[in-house]
Design goal:
Two copies of one chain form a homodimer. By secondary structure, the first copy, chain A, is of the alpha/beta class. Chain A has three domains: 15-59, lambda repressor-like DNA-binding domains (434 Repressor (Amino-terminal Domain)), CATH 1.10.260; 70-168 and 301-327, 3-Layer(aba) Sandwich (Rossmann fold), CATH 3.40.50.2300; 171-298, Rossmann fold (3-Layer(aba) Sandwich), CATH 3.40.50.2300. The first copy, chain A, has twelve helices and twelve strands. In chain A, the strands form two sheets. Chain A has a six-stranded parallel β-sheet, with helices on both faces. Chain A has a six-stranded mixed β-sheet with strand order 7-6-8-9-10-12, with helices on both faces. The model of chain A is unreliable at 1-9 (pLDDT under 50). The interface between A and B is large, with 65 and 66 residues. Chain A binds a DNA duplex through helix 2 and helix 4.
DNA sequence: CTGAAAGCGCTAACAC
DNA sequence: GTGTTAGCGCTTTCAG
């Protein structure tokens, strides 16, 4: 004999209870809860508000979502919210969404194609009103997005897919200023520590590095590729240090990689920027507290997040797809050699 | 004349369409989609599956949530997902939830009481099936949770509130091993860099530090308090260095603070661990890549996240509230003086 | 094994 | 200003 499980249902009190208690119709309760679309007499409104408070009524979001066809929720699909760049993005998107009354469904894809696809589908079936997608793929599963007819904005996606909104920075330009800065310090052998995507996307940071070198009449330095992570950077750093023609400066395509490179350099008993100068990309908080602090190309993450959310569910929603590019800024700290380390 | 907005409604195809297309009733479609509660003939099932595929049908989660009274979503309330400890927690909670078919609603409270309360309320009205709450408050808004009758688990909350599940580590024990380790290195003047909560909660890490010192017959070292952040740690570090009786070792209550302290020490031209040894708390990834790498008390975040989700929506849900404490492990790296920095 | 139908809580016509 | 009510898409009991 199994004991019947008491459902212990939450939010038992519905708008009907409130209506009864306040002696009005359910429509009126709706009107006061939503502040419209009809006006309610002040006295009635007060009665309803009292009933709501006394009964402890909270609207059922699922019912509302069903009726309205909108969950007032947006989805975020990122590779890994543990990466400082994405954690800041997540926070900023959450803030921007909350500002508009939207909640944030967070999903990590872990650089995994299947997982990303699953996350997109899952979000779609959850009636999210939009998704911001920082894909790990060259060809993200845009089809799923289109099929679901759900607004999306792509973040920093190289190939600006037609029909989709996107926000991003000019990766090539950002890389250029980082490399130019190194060139300004007199370096002529400047390596590139390039992050690898899951797919064979040609990253524009690589192009920027190339452009800067070419513009200065400098030879191409070594390129070493590895994951966009501290570990990846560490491995890349060791390889760079072991090279016959060791570079005197390195441009890393992400702060995380630079952190790893820093470790490799320290372990080799070398110092930054004296033996090897370093600049990187992202402008995450961690880059400010490394030793030495990293000179890095900062992406305006908060602004980008706001633009993304705005495009999705703000006033401008539903407009023709557009690509918004934001400017980067070089944060000059110690790793480039500009400022003595303290 | 305003152009009428075309709603462009997503997921137009409903279970009714599928039923019609497959020549069955809507109930049957439900049965195959959910794998129950009734059995369906193989032939029929195939027809339905085809119809689903061809029509591109995806179930409407809002309708399901309304019917079932469960959104298959859990909420996470943390101070700041930008903090490595919480970002790992968020990722782990997301993974554990996804494993069970639940999605994760992320909210940041930014150490703000009102925001935390708002987040809890908001999650409750969104019919989440549970919330894991890492509060910044001494007295989190448990009332809101109770009123909503929504399962919750508190994370690392000192005062184990009656009637609530909680998961956490033994903060005092963790602090003790970190301080004992410093004592083992021969230090006798060991400072405490203590993080501050919003409220006046007495943190057990402070107690652990005290206990270790007392057990070794050592005098209390200086205590300096500041926010649980890199900046907070930096300020704390500078104060500690300026002290008349400068400590030879510091125990920091979080990795972030230790990172800030490291910077303060570097800037003072001192080295770790030679001039000052350092241990900290959390075991975040960033601690592994600082220079020198931090010896830190690692919290088993993934395990804790799994336990929290399990308590909320797993098989054991609905049981009497319990408090689960997990063991910490000392990760010995370079900042304590054990291992030469490479 | 399959179908009909009630109803989850809410919104917003539409009627008064 | 307020009330009635249809119906959003789904699950599941109950009847065949």
């Amino acid at each position: 004999m199994t004991t019947p499980v008491v459902p212990s249902h939450r939010s038992q009190v519905t708008r009907k209870d409130v209506a009864r208690y306040a002696g009005v119709s359910t429509a009126v309760v709706s009107y006061v809860v939503n502040g419209g679309p009809k006006k309610v007499a002040p006295g009635t409104e007060a009665k309803v508000q009292d009933a709501i408070r006394i009964l402890g009524y909270r609207p059922n979001a699922a019912a509302r979502a069903l009726k309205l066809g909108s969950s007032e929720t947006i989805g975020l699909v990122i590779p890994d919210n543990t990466n400082p760049f994405f954690s800041l993005l997540a926070h900023a998107v959450e803030d921007a969404a909350a500002e508009l009354g939207f909640a944030l469904l967070l999903t990590n894809s872990d650089g995994n194609l299947a997982k990303e696809r699953h996350n997109i589908r899952n979000l779609a079936s959850r009636q999210v009103d939009g998704v911001v997608l920082a894909s790990v793929l060259f060809e993200p599963d845009l089809a799923a997005l289109e099929a679901a007819d759900i607004p999306a904005v792509l973040l920093n996606h190289g190939s600006q897919a037609a029909g989709f909104n996107s926000v991003g920075v000019d990766l090539a330009a950002g890389a250029r200023i980082a490399v130019d800065h190194l060139i300004g310090h007199g370096h002529t052998n400047i390596a590139l520590a390039m992050g690898t995507n899951t797919a064979g996307d040609f990253d524009l940071r690589e192009e920027g590095w190339l452009q800067a070198l070419a513009a200065a009449g400098l030879p191409e330095g070594p390129i070493v590729r590895g994951p966009f992570s501290r570990e990846g950077g560490y491995a890349v750093g060791r390889r760079l240090l072991a090279a016959a023609d060791r570079p005197t400066a390195i441009f890393a395509s992400s702060d995380m990689q630079a952190i790893g490179i820093l470790r490799a350099i320290h372990e080799a008993g070398l110092s930054v920027p004296e033996d090897i100068a370093l600049t990187s990309f992202d402008g995450s908080a961690e880059a400010e507290y490394s030793w030495p602090a990293l000179t890095t190309v900062e992406q305006p993450v908060r602004v980008m997040a706001e633009a993304a959310v705005e495009a999705l569910v703000g006033a401008s929603r539903g407009q023709a797809s557009e690509h918004r590019t934001f400017p980067t800024t070089l944060r000059i700290r110690h790793s480039c050699g500009c400022i003595a380390p303290a």
